[in-house]
């Protein structure tokens, strides 16, 4: 209804966004709760952050889903590694080693896609 559209647009900086995006924006606002940004500006900034994430997904994720997934895993591991405090005993025990790279498989898939297109 026009009333619903107006309500959503007024809440999200003039943008008409779906419920899933609205939840993502609310999560971004929660992340910013400790920032110095004024409350009114937090929602606007959260919408910008989410729209940037959507744009990155649409640019890379739809064209090259394996690369997007690999990038997402990399980011997840980066965040996790910052939180883990390693003690000296764990570093002495050694760690997991990689037996092979996934890059040849990704390159093959990209090459196959190029041949199809």
From TrEMBL:
Pfam families: DUF1677 (PF07911). Residues 84-104 are annotated as: Disordered. This is Uncharacterized protein. It comes from Noccaea caerulescens.
């Amino acid at each position: 209804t026009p009333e619903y559209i107006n309500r959503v647009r007024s809440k999200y900086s003039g943008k008409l966004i779906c419920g899933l995006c609205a939840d993502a924006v609310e999560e971004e606002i929660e992340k910013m709760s400790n920032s110095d940004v004024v409350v009114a500006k937090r929602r606007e900034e959260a919408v910008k952050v989410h729209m940037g994430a959507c744009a990155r997904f649409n640019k890379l994720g739809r064209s090259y889903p394996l690369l997007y997934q690999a990038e997402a895993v990399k980011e997840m591991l980066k965040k996790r590694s910052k939180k883990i405090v390693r003690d000296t005993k764990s570093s002495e025990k050694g760690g997991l080693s990689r037996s092979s790279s996934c890059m040849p498989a990704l390159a093959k898939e990209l090459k196959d896609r190029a041949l199809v297109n």
